[in-house]
Amino acid sequence: MGAGLLMLGSCVQPTVNVEPAPVNKADIVIENIMTRVSVRNFTNEPVSRADLQTLMKVGIQAPSANNRQDWEVRVVDNQQTLNEISDLAKKSEAGAQLAQRMGDKNIFANAPAVFFIAQEVGAPYSGVDTGLLSENILLAAHAMGLGAVYQAGPVRSMTSSPEVMEYLKKLGFSENYELLNIILVGHPAESPAVKDRDASKARFVE
Ligand SMILES: Cc1cc2nc3c(=O)[nH]c(=O)nc-3n(C[C@H](O)[C@H](O)[C@H](O)COP(=O)(O)O)c2cc1C
After folding, report:
1. What percent of the chain is modeled with pLDDT above 70?
2. Cα separation, 155 vs 153, whole angstroms
């Protein structure tokens, strides 16, 4: 009997075998890319370690030049650590503006988890490679119902402060690695609209 056929019998309850609708992988991936937005406001619900582990895994699955994997990733979900980094960064000259903008929040917008991403100094494509790694994390976070944003700004307020740099030794990046960007991750407390892109930037040429 074929799937989806209604089966009737004297002592058998009617059942319907419904096959799942066919899944078009391309549609799902494209929809995920097209609906991703940067999220900068989070609830205070923690992100599970299992989800953070998944984000680390998909991040380092990104392509990299010659498969050098010239990145290092540290994830901090300890609020005390994040607050301590933030308090030091806010005191720095470069952090003053950010401190004003963040108000009561720490420089990480009180995100429950922060990815710190470092690139290998002098590796010619490490900026590209860390960017691809970051995008994997952003897209996966969105697909998982989490909110995330790539940020470079707060890194300036951290790296310009000797006190923060001393504290950040705790992250244990290798000597020839420098912090390039962070990614804030949490459960979204906002749903920003998708921003338009300039379609004229990409076109066919005969
Ligand atoms: C290299 C880079 C640096 C960024 N730095 C910051 C930042 O410091 N703070 C911030 O809130 N967003 C930052 N963003 C996020 C962008 O503002 C955001 O991706 C852009 O406005 C497009 O919006 P969308 O991500 O919602 O599509 C950065 C993004 C990139 C790629």
Report:
1. 93
2. 5
For 7, 18, 20, 152, 198, the CA distances from 3, given in Å and listed in that order, are: 10, 7, 11, 53, 47
Residue 26 within a domain: no
pLDDT value at 18 more than 90:
no
- Burial (CB count within 10 angstroms: exposed 0-12, middle 13-18, buried 19+), residue 125: middle
Residue whose pair of structure tokens reads 């897209």 in the numeric block: 139
Is 22 within the bounds of a domain?
Answer: no
For ligand 1, whether the C-beta of 60 sits within 6 Å is no
Give the CATH number of the domain where residue 143 resides. Answer: 3.40.109.10
Do the domain assignments include residue 89?
yes
Residue 148 domain-assigned (yes or no)? yes
Alpha-carbon distances, residue 101 vs 22, 107, 162 (angstroms): 47, 9, 22
Structural domain including 80 reads 42-189
CA of 2 to the centre of ligand 1 (A): 51
- pLDDT, one tens digit per residue, over 96-124 is 899 999 999 999 999 999 999 999 999 99
- Is the CB of 195 within 6 Å of ligand 1? yes
- Distance, CA 168 to ligand 1 centroid (Å)? 23
> Which residue's CA is the closest to the ligand 1 atom numbered 30?
150
State the total domains in the chain.
Answer: 1
For residue 116, give both structure tokens.
């710190």
